[in-house]
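Escalation from tier 1.

The customer reports that the assembly of three entities below gives different structure tokens on two consecutive runs. Tier 1 could not reproduce it. I'm attaching the input and our single run for tier 2 to review.
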Amino acid sequence: MQDRNDQKRNGPDFSRRDFLKGSAAAATATAVATQGPEEAAAANLKTNVFAATAQNVTLNVNGKNHTVKVEPRVTLLHVLRNTLNLTGCKEVDERSADGADTVMIDGKAVLAGSRLAIECEGKKIRTVESLRQGNKVDEVVSGFVKHDAMQCGFCTPGFVVATRVFLDKNPKASLGDIQKGLGGNICRCGTYQGITSCALEISKGGK
Amino acid sequence: MRPFEYARPQTEGEALDLLNDHDANTAVLAGGTDLVALLQSDLQAPERVVDIKQIESMQGVTADEDGILIGALTTLEEIAESPLLADYRSLGDVVDGVRAIQIQQMGTIGGDLCHLPNCWFYRNGYGLLALENGESLVADGDNRYHAIVGNQGPAKFVSAARFAPALIAWGADVKVIGPEPDASEWLPLEHFFVTPKVESQGISVLKPGQLISHVRLPAAANRISSTYEVLQMDGLDWPLATAAVTIDLDGSVVREASIVMGHVAPMPWVAHEAAQSLIGHAIDEVSATRAGEFAVAGATPLRDNAYKVQLAKTAVKRAVLAAAEMLEGGL
Amino acid sequence: MAERKVAWKARKDNSLIGSDITRIDGIEKASGHAKYAADINTAGTLFARLLTFKGGAAVVKTVDTADAEKTPGVRAVHVFNGPGKEVRWDGTIVAAVAADTPEQAEDGVRAIKVTYETKPHWVDEEDLAGATKAMRTKPLGDNQKGEVDAALKAAKHVHTGYYGIATISHMCLETHGSHCEWNGEDKLNVHLSTQNVSGTGGQFAGPLGLDASNVSITCNYIGGGFGSKFAADEWGLACAQLSKKAGKPVRLMLDRATELKIGGTRPSGFAKVTIAADAEGNITVWDSHHWGTSGIAGSTIALGQLPYCFDGIPNRNRKATGISTNTGPNRAWRAPPHPQLCAVTDTVIDDLAAKMGADSYDIFLKNLDKTKKPDVYAEEMKIGAKLIDWKAKWHAHGKGGGGAQKRGLGMALHQWGGRAGATTCTVKVHPDGAVETFLGSQDLGTGTRTVIAITLAETFGLGVADVKVNLGNNSYPKANPSGGSITVGGVTGPHRRAGLEALWKIYDLVAAKYKVAADSLSAKGGKILSAGKAVCTWKQACGLLGAMPLEVQGQGPKADGLTSQGVGGIQMADVTVDIETGIVKINELVAVQDCGLIIDELTARSQVYGGLIMGIAYALSEERVMDNRTGRFINADLENYKLPRIGDIGELKVHMYQPDSEYERGVVGLGEPPVISTGAAISNAVANATGVRVPVQPLTPQRVLEALKGGQA
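Tier 1 run:
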């Protein structure tokens, strides 16, 4: 019995090749991976192609540019958490079905675990940490505190960001709107009541 | 994730060029809500990921004399908010069912149509067909969420595409481009999906190096429509069964109808007899219920999922009633 | 001088205790600045990834890590289960790799080659007959009380039914794990996601051959535990070993699937029960056989606790059978095993009421004499009934309306201990008036910091923000592990004691300095008052301490009335069931909960809301799905392990039951009780709506439709 993960890797793009060919392809990819960016350039990669090796990627996070050296396969979530030490966004589920990794990109709510860092060049990224500047605290953050919309707090930052984006888009959200819009986040401790109250207070009950 | 190159084309032609390197062992990246998870779990291992998000020609919703053209990169949010799509209620119903601002703002219609199944055997690395020594793990395993129709071959997963039933019920076409830089073909969306007989067939007609660039909807022409998704949870969740209907009314009597079920078969399931049963009748509880019964008449549920027959039947009934604004209640 | 007695203030004299006070660490948490073990990134930190067994059972034949060791970026490889070791459930860790980046660690994991010899497995925990045939069962005792057969003959109403509740996972959002960093050869610093800050140092020290005093455990924040995070765990030790081998700090957190599979589960429970009552509805007989699994150990919920709460039923047979399954082991899950006990007791009582054609409320009420707290339950039921409008909404079972959507009501009740845990603390009052405390406790979400700050602030007449609470480190005075709802009682008692002792010393200094009677003094609003008039400010009073801070040790629990144990609580549910889809929606849930003296109403209510929502989860959607054929935990991801979201909770009404009689009892723990009876209350409401018992929770559309198809229970 082999490890099952190695048995089958399928999908429309991959599955049309037999597995042996896939393995050979993977070996090629490894060869590419060992090249530096300079070699990659020398290998005449097409315009707009970045080699599989670590690349200089400039990210604009919370108003500041950061140039990091990461492979294309590295997610935005990993760069924010592991490289930039912005750990408010959390890694909860590899499928990002929980929303704890929510950040703002150009004003939209984005699951940072479902974005490659290199995809985000030229975008304005905002993390939850930007919602507190010294003593200045965003109303969603203070509303979460006021309504005790947290227990362990691990899902809370992702929920705060989702709520911020949602209310920016729906400043007069009703209860029903809130329940539909914020269904992408999971809280295990069960703090939805406080989150609902907080969002409803800011949206003035949808009126 | 394994290492891969990353490419960021600006045009469709450039995208095709980039997708066809490496023997087309490449992957298309749009919203990322499915692909990145597939890469994370090593279910796909392309040599190059081609990020198509910057291709202008594939964005947004436009109208022409024949109908509506939707770029494959149009997000769920844009679909819900486009005034051009206001008459296509069944599409808005789908967006409404995706209860997460993140997915609404990230997810694209093209990505939805290419979404790989949520089948837990597939996601756990057993392949689309989940065959072990030629035997189906699904048939003999926990198949509570699997197909109830179109499941007599080896494929027993359910199609994950949430927009497909509504789009097919509207008679949408899809534009497939590639693999050659100038190759493109319009085909009915109904013909886009396949039920694979062998693992390598995948879930659609897309060949390596191809992608969906656009979806075209015919003019709404006063037709009514609805999608009814049976969602166990009120938040982000996969429907247990879906039905979409598009109906052309002559006064109060159905002149033409189209009914397509989702999440009940390896591909969107067109229920011809169910649609036919409506023609010549007014929409009411009786005709809607009958349509539901026709829709599941040939169902062949697996060991654990007979209950989905009831769900599919109900979804059809409720979609018909909802299209005519006659649905009351319903969870 | 009047006797100085340790006690809480008279209720009316409190400025803070019993009001709504927001968390002192709320902004840190909500703005993402709070650092969990999963967030620790000290310089050079390596990232670990795991290779796990994917199957039901096997013996490891070979593990080849040579290629992994050579993989770029990989710094260390650790094998948990080498050749010859049995791996007995899906998700068992075989090896771990630490590398410069998480991606390189994944490369390393992929490069490890493992071969297995497959062994037969059994993962079905509900199929008692099948498990018996597969030789997977073991008897776990039986006992009798009274005369069951005779009482059954004499009974007017007899009901027999099948009931159950599935296994669920703790599913902590922060997975189990740690960040380990060595300081030289023999000192280890661990950031551990733990409910047991004071008790885990030794668990690292022993196996690693260290002096326990050289292991530092830090946990300032923990992302969920629910009873599953008391230990260092094999992966914690592996993290330390990887770190040692690599000479760099390592962060090892379980991935989501592994968390679900081996991070802890709540055992299942299934039961066949016969219940009987006399003509008035007095329950006279309980006869049950229950079974379930805790994993390979093959245990099930304890025999001695059925029927739950209604221990006074006079005639009783009970029997338990355990099933050994190839599934990840159980761990204590919030109120073990009360939710399961309640799920197979209060549902049975409700079915008895249905059989009698009675209002379930009346039958519960009639039988309260068989519980430990009949008066409290009766009072709570009255409050609950008013909140949910029981009498107006009640209808006979199965009369939930004419259309596809049926509405119904259900109730259930629960009990819990909640004694104070053993905790010590050091309270420091500085000469400048600053107050701080140190203790090796942790905040699971309870609001530990906040209740401590409230206790000291109330005692000293200060504001909550004037108190600094230092917890989460094992160098601080020892505190109880947070499990069993013992923390709030555990930490507030010692702080009240220490606070009073410090205050009395300060009173003596003030009395001497300002020539006032010490027993006339009180502390309020940042001032020391004598007979209601300000003598000096708190700061001035503390200035009398001289150069050194005043340090007082607090201890507990003590039998001085600050804390107590034993709580009850009732819950009521109003649901709608769509009989065409089997979907159940919560319209309203009511919880009436007693817990003695409440320090912070806001966070106390949050605990109850949280209990209700976790209850909705196991009642309606979450369960571990084991696939028989593959032996896999097949839904170990958050798209298939279904948890309620913000739209799934209906309207929640929480009433904290705190008459003076409760206040006078002192503090009792609250974390677990509100999760216990939610499932049974919801199940009963579904039965009331439809007239059919859906036997096994969670009540998924599949189970609801199958039950409806089967007709009456």
